[in-house]
Design brief:
about 0% strand, disordered N terminus
């Protein structure tokens, strides 16, 4: 029988998943609506220019990331006073870092414009130099909610931010009809997030530097810089190379495809990682059975979602792009279908990462990512220079395939009792994806209308993936029975 502490943790995790699911649904819908409107009103060159600018902004951020917030989640503080001192110290250091970033961006604006051979990029990066400073003002008190796996208020904050940001972006695009709408929307979104963060949490950070808090934070975050740089390489090196070798239009088309493929990954990262990392961190490694059960439950349900998403994007990538964005973005369809494989591989890597970090810390993760980034860079130039955006998509897919295998291997080593379950679940999702694509392709053979292909193909994929996963995965069947049982208890008014 679970102890009161275990019951409390299970309850908080279930609540966290529920609220984060709402957040992801909102983020997905508002993000999709925003991207559809913007893509139909702006040209690929505009998206390319923003992509170039963001490679500079995120690059500078990655080179200075020290991951101090991890210490808040991993540390059991003796008192609220100690927690608040720690929070204020982290907030102060991060604000100073972001002020430095703003100054560096001003200095890099001209060289970046010359590197990409785009004169208008100079003014865009100058305006983007305000972003780090604005983001640094956000209320760090929100970390308290995440540490306690209390996502209700965070989700309401995200809902409000998403709605206001989407509305502002659409208004700006309708008004300007050029790239400056995207630039201004980034700044407005950052400002909205700052204002709302103080409305949703009572903590009021102030400048402070506590030696003990700083030492503890750096102990947890010492590998964050390396992880940040490696993460930047894996996510932005393709953008940099495409922008340099080709032009803003080619990069813009690639960005549209990548962003559409990344939406499911964002969902997994938000719903799963945000909830499971503090939960895994709270479960002691001595309670290995609890840790195994928690991981299997998350892993099996997420595997079904990954199979469904991968099959949809691979079979219907062209139709999705044409329906949402129009014929001028047709080239993104081919890239999106390749990136569907990246969704599968990166999704599994994302699922396993919080487990590894919670048990072993950042050091092993950093070593593995170093190897992965090296392989990615080795593949990127030859494939991109020869095949353009399609080559960049294949380079990323191959690199994240290696990432996935590494993560799954380490997960099976750390949790040997469920090693067979892990690999069987991945194999089941692969089979479900393949069967769904084959049946879907057969059913839409000869169908010409885009909407009909999407409806028929999407329905076949949804039914097939669900059926195959339920047949092959006993853990998924168990999880569904638990879900139905919990639903019945709620309906009957049972605790």
């Amino acid at each position: 029988m679970p102890t009161p502490l275990q019951t409390s943790l299970n309850s908080r995790v279930q609540s966290g998943v529920f609220w984060n699911t709402i957040s992801v649904s909102s983020t997905y819908l508002t993000g999709l609506l925003r991207s559809i409107v913007v893509a139909r009103l702006l040209a690929p060159d505009d998206f390319g220019l923003i992509g170039m600018a963001l490679t500079v902004v995120t690059g500078i951020n990655a080179l200075t990331t020290i991951g101090l917030d991890i210490s808040v989640i991993k540390t059991n503080f003796k008192s609220d006073e100690e927690l608040f001192t720690h929070l204020d110290t982290i907030w102060t250091v991060d604000l100073a870092r972001r002020v430095l970033l703003s100054i560096l961006l001003v200095g890099l604006a001209y060289p970046a414009a010359k590197f990409y051979r785009e004169d208008s990029l100079y003014q865009i990066i100058l305006l983007f130099s305000l972003l780090p400073f604005i983001q640094g003002l956000q209320n760090i008190g929100l970390l308290i909610y995440r540490k306690g796996i209390d996502f209700r208020r965070i989700v309401w904050l995200e809902l409000a931010t998403n709605f206001l940001t989407a509305t502002t972006t659409i208004v700006l695009v309708l008004w300007t009809r050029n790239v400056w709408a995207l630039v201004l929307s980034q700044l407005v979104a950052a400002a909205i997030a700052v204002v709302l963060s103080y409305l949703f949490h009572p903590h009021r950070p102030h400048l402070a530097l506590d030696k003990d808090a700083l030492s503890l934070a750096f102990t947890f975050g010492k590998y964050a810089l390396l992880l940040g740089v490696l993460g930047y390489i894996m996510q932005m090196a393709d953008n940099i190379l495409l922008g340099r070798l080709y032009n803003a239009a080619v990069l813009g088309t690639y960005v549209i495809a990548y962003n559409l493929a990344a939406l499911p990954i964002h969902g997994i990262a938000t719903v799963i990682v945000n909830v499971t990392f503090p939960a895994y961190a709270e479960i002691s490694t001595a309670e290995i059975r609890r840790l195994e059960n928690a991981f299997v439950r998350v892993f099996t349900t997420s595997s079904a979602l990954l199979a469904l998403t991968t099959a949809l994007l691979m079979l219907l990538g062209d139709e999705i792009v044409l329906l949402l964005y129009g014929a001028k973005w047709a080239a993104a369809g081919t890239t999106l279908r390749i990136l569907s494989l990246l969704v599968f591989c990166r999704g599994y890597a994302t699922l396993v990462s919080p487990l590894l970090v919670s048990i072993r810390g950042n050091a092993p993760d950093a070593k593995v990512k170093l190897i992965e980034a090296t392989i990615f860079l080795a593949l990127l130039y030859p494939l991109t220079s020869r095949f353009g955006a399609v080559g960049a998509a294949w380079a990323g897919t191959i690199a994240f395939f290696i990432t996935m295998i590494n993560r799954l291997y380490f997960a099976s080593v750390l949790l040997p009792n469920i090693s067979k379950t892990i690999w069987r679940t991945v194999l089941s999702s692969l089979i479900a994806t393949g069967v769904a694509i084959a049946l879907g392709a057969l059913c839409i053979l000869g169908v010409e209308k885009i909407v009909t292909r999407l409806l028929v193909g999407g329905s076949i994929i949804a039914v097939t993936v669900t059926a195959v996963m339920l047949i092959l995965s006993p853990e998924l069947r168990t999880e569904l029975r638990r879900l139905f049982s919990s639903t019945q208890q709620i309906q009957n008014g049972e605790p």
